[in-house]
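Re: export button greyed out
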Amino acid sequence: MTLPLGDRQPAKGRFDAIVVGGGPAGLSAACTLADGGSRVCVIERGDWPGSKNMMGGLIFAQPTSKVVPEFWKRGPVERPVTRRELWITTGDAAFKGAYESTDFGVEPYNAFTVFRSRFDKWLAGEARAKGAVILTETLVEDLLWDGERVAGVRTGRSEGDLEADVVIIAEGANSFLTEKAGLCQGAESGSLALAVKEVLALPKEKIEDRFSLEDGAGAAYEIIGEITDGIPGTGFIYTNKDTVSIGVGVILKDMVNRAGAAYNLLERFKAQPQVRRLIAGASPREYTAHLIPEGGYRGMPRLYGDGVLVAGDAASMVNAVFTEGANLALLSGRIAAQTVLRASEFGTFGCETLSYYGGLLEDSLIMKDLKQYKNVMPLLSSHLHFFGLYPEIASAAVKEFLTVDSLSKADKHKLIMKLVRSQRPSRKMIKDLYEAWRAIS
Amino acid sequence: MSEEKKRLPYDDRPWTPPEHNVTAQLGLVKFKPDGTSHLSIKDKQVCGEICRRKFCTHTCPAQVYRWEEEEQSISIAFEGCLECGTCRGGGCPYDNIEMRYPRGGFGVQYRLG
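Workaround output, generated via the alternate export path:
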């Protein structure tokens, strides 16, 4: 069976650079390489770049506009996010913190909600317009080697070997090729999170009413607490033009240990009273699932080898604490491409030349941020009570404080302190606090 | 058995069917199924004799894996796979599922994502 090619060029041939994967990292690399005059081919296994991709829905304007300036004027964005909220839930209660800025609703913006399938398709069009070849419906099955050097890729097409000076692996969370390149030994399951999401249709006016938004503006809510049933993770709700994205992400290892199921958590989340009324009457449009490599700095593979570089999710470039991923992917793809362009000037693509990638990354906010928060995920995984007990204690304390009854405030203070201590000894809480502070400072 | 596997300490309860059925949710997703499965069980004995909880029947967000009591084996509805990689990344704690991607142009096709 022959499949139509995504572009005019034949599958067989030679390129300066091959990029595996049409996501934010791969397409950013392709844009930068094409801009630099490199003959680059992006290989995507889906029918179009984006058709296999999923995320919660936030892209950040500044890093994205470095790759495609003023993308919001031309690209398929949903809503600029003007309000972010963090909720801590227990039982039927929610404790909410919010930040809202009308500044985020005007240029140069801060973040937008997007649908990956639409946005990446558009971004691929931008890359193509710059001169990149986008080869779709093509699975990269293996790497081609010239001795110790990666020399190209073997695709599933007949006569589908493609050679190149360098291969940029931007394959996403499932690290098939990164393993084959000998840069990692299989994903460490302790660092993977599973996210499931539903997109629910809701009329524009209802979205703006329920989320209290200006015309066309958007909201992004992150929710922690009892909704994940004690498993480290978060729920999220993002507003799109006429849909709402709602999902749950949990650390896979902990979910497995407890024989949990992500879709159960999502159902539970949707039934939470404060959530239920936001999505009441909304009709489901799509259900998606994806892995997120949340290992951060500690979960990173080796980032380069002879003739090969790794970028984006494949390189574990996710800041789980701040739900950042796509921006780091875009940035790392760009840096990988800059490394390749520089290597082209030298005419060598060995490990030594490509080590420039490591240096640039070290100086970038990618490594700075990932190093800063490298201890947070291990801490959360070993302190499961951060997601169960503490929200419960905090909620009970606040409820007691806000309930006006016959107790004096002084008695309430005593009662609350007693309640807190009965749940966890003070010295343990101080230790938790110290460890949490250590992990982020 | 190819390699000796021991039951995990947290595999301490028998299998129960999933509480929630994702069939309706999967009905909203577009799939272009290939003729052959990109998923397979490495060693059926592990599912039948060692794994008690049948973890994959709960961890897979698309409920691709079903425990067939009569056959004493896991059936695989690969056509509805969301290709997330959960089964490969720890969703089967016995590492007993072989997951590849479907051939290019096949499998799940997100319209929104």
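Chain B has a mean pLDDT of 95. The button fix ships in the next patch.
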